[in-house]
Design goal:
Order of helices and strands: HHHEEHHHHEEEHHHHEHEEHEEHHEE
Largest sheet: 5 strands, antiparallel
Number of helices: 15
CATH class of the largest domain: Alpha Beta
Strand order of the largest sheet: 2-1-5-4-3
Distance between the termini: 128 Å
CATH architecture of the largest domain: 2-Layer Sandwich
Bound molecules: adenosine-5'-triphosphate, magnesium ion
Helix content: 55-70%
Strand content: 15-25%
Structural class: alpha+beta
Radius of gyration: 58 Å
Length: 490
């Protein structure tokens, strides 16, 4: 408003020559100024100026009021919006709070589930190993640490086969499980003296594909099964002997009796032979000379001896079958060894090859040997396995002056009883010695029924598991082998 007034008044005041021109009309003819006119004009101008000013002011006021109304309306609208926004924000805040609570709860539950799963994995009795598709370890539980001897820190991030080369699975198994999306089961995978059932589970559909390997040590179960098989074998042998004992013994005694009768009827010394000989024109003395020259009596003695031994075998087998017992018994181990030697003489002399009875047995038994608590039938089984193996190893020796010999030493040391069975057979190389206690390890022809490779593994199981003892071998190739057994006396 002031700027407009200034615009009106300034031209009047500032432009002095113009003002001077305008003032000329207010001059009287005498040159004096007609102040009346000037005053009237000035008053008129002032009134006009004031009027316009008032008009202008009135208009401005109206405008200001309308601006103020508009502003108030905007402010009201803004306030309303702020209230609305604040309400919305409060709802969002509440929702956010709920979300945060929910998230915290979920995180806690996730953490506790993870800890739970971790403790299951850690404490399970099986080896549980996680590997990615290239065999790098991602999971390694306590059983894996215990069996491999490598802790989780040393195993994680390393190649499975670098950390645990003994494991009986290969990269191919991992690849196959992943490509087929099917688990792979490897039953009775064998490493050293241990048996494992292994399952490879593929982890497909995850961001990082891999497999979980579950390794179950079934050594005890397999060995127990093998022991049962051997026991069954022994039991059925005994049953067979028991069943056939009568059938064998009666024709056998008939044979033995007949042989004896033949011997007597060939003899010129028996009075009863003379009459039938005379009636047939036979010279008994010449017949006796012929029998002697052809060693017929020796042959008949041999038949009798073999028959008697057959009878011994049957009764020995019967005793063996009956001797199995469920309880440990206090026994003199030497009785068991001697019984088994007798059994071995009967059994292993019939099979052809080296006869067990032709082996020189050297015994070293102390006088005051304490009795031991053991399962007699099982100990007999162990000694029979050792004697059979020795018999075989001695038979393989190809030296002209070789005298097959078996030394048996028994002695007590502290609370342990020690038994050594030493042969001077073919012996065995270091790499064979390392495996002989493994089930099914044999260098004999299984197809020919020579060996199943179970003898020593079952003996190992009997000594270590059933008698808390130890069994070991020392051997020099070409010189012989010694089996060392140690069991607690009480
Ligand atoms: N005294 C020994 N001398 C040399 N080698 C032996 C001797 N005893 C055992 N062995 C070796 O150990 C292997 C395993 O013996 P083990 O008694 O377990 O099985 P096997 O005799 O072959 O068969 P099985 O006893 O089941 O009839 C034998 O095949 C043989 O190679
Ligand atoms: Mg054997």
């Amino acid at each position: 408003m002031f700027s407009r007034l200034t615009c009106l008044i300034l031209p009047l005041c500032v432009s002095v020559p113009t003002v001077a021109g305008v003032l000329d009309i207010y001059k009287l003819p005498d040159g004096s100024t007609n102040w009346q006119y000037l005053a009237n004009t000035g008053a008129g101008l002032l009134i006009i100026g004031l009027g316009s000013g008032i008009l202008f002011l009135a208009m401005s006021r109206r405008k200001i009021r309308s601006y103020a109304d508009a502003l108030a309306k905007i402010r009201d609208e803004l306030e309303l919006r702020v209230v609305e926004r604040t309400a919305k924000l409060e709802v969002s805040n509440q929702k956010l709070g709920e979300e945060v609570d929910h998230h915290r709860h979920t995180t806690e539950r996730l953490a506790s589930t993870e800890a739970y799963i971790k403790s299951i994995i850690q404490s399970m009795p099986y080896m549980l190993i996680g590997v990615d598709k290239s065999g790098v370890i991602t999971q390694w539980n306590q059983a894996a640490q215990r069996v491999s001897g490598v802790d989780a820190e040393g195993a994680m991030g390393q190649s499975l086969w670098a950390v645990y080369p003994q494991i009986a699975i290969e990269q191919g198994h991992v690849e196959r499980a992943l490509s087929t999306s099917e688990p792979i089961h490897i039953e009775h995978a064998q490493r050293g003296q241990y048996y494992y059932d292994i399952t490879v589970y593929p982890l497909v559909g995850t961001t990082d594909p891999g497999v979980v390997i579950l390794v179950d040590d079934v050594t005890q179960r397999v060995l127990a099964e093998n022991t049962l098989i051997q026991k069954d074998k022994m039991a059925s042998m005994g049953e067979l002997a028991a069943g056939m004992a009568h059938d064998i013994n009666s024709p056998l005694s008939a044979i033995l009796q007949a042989v004896q009768t033949v011997q007597r009827r060939l003899s010129p010394d028996l009075e009863a032979n003379h009459k039938p000989a005379q009636s047939t024109g036979l010279d008994l003395q010449r017949l006796a000379d012929y029998v002697k020259a052809r060693e017929i009596n020796e042959l008949l003695d041999g038949v009798q001896e073999a028959g008697a031994r057959t009878s011994d075998i049957v009764s020995n087998l019967l005793e063996f079958a009956r001797s199995s017992s469920h309880d440990k018994q206090q026994v003199d181990i030497i009785d068991i060894i001697e019984n088994t030697l007798e059994l071995a003489r009967n059994i292993f002399s019939l099979q052809g090859g080296l006869r067990f009875q032709d082996i020189r047995i050297e015994r070293s038994y102390p006088e005051d040997l304490p009795e031991v608590k053991c399962y007699p039938a099982e100990m007999q089984q162990v000694f029979l396995n050792l004697f059979r193996n020795a018999n075989h190893a001695l038979q393989l020796v190809d030296k002209p002056d070789h005298v097959p010999r078996l030394k048996i030493r028994v002695y007590a040391m502290d609370i342990m009883l020690r038994i050594e069975v030493e042969d001077n057979g073919v012996g065995m190389e270091e790499d064979i010695q390392q495996h002989i206690f493994e089930p099914f390890f044999t260098d004999k022809a299984f197809s020919k029924g020579e060996g199943s490779g179970l003898g020593l593994s079952v003996s190992h199981f009997i000594i270590t598991e059933h008698h808390d003892g130890h069994i070991a071998v020392t051997s020099t190739p070409g010189e012989g082998s010694t089996f060392h057994i140690q069991i607690p006396c009480a």
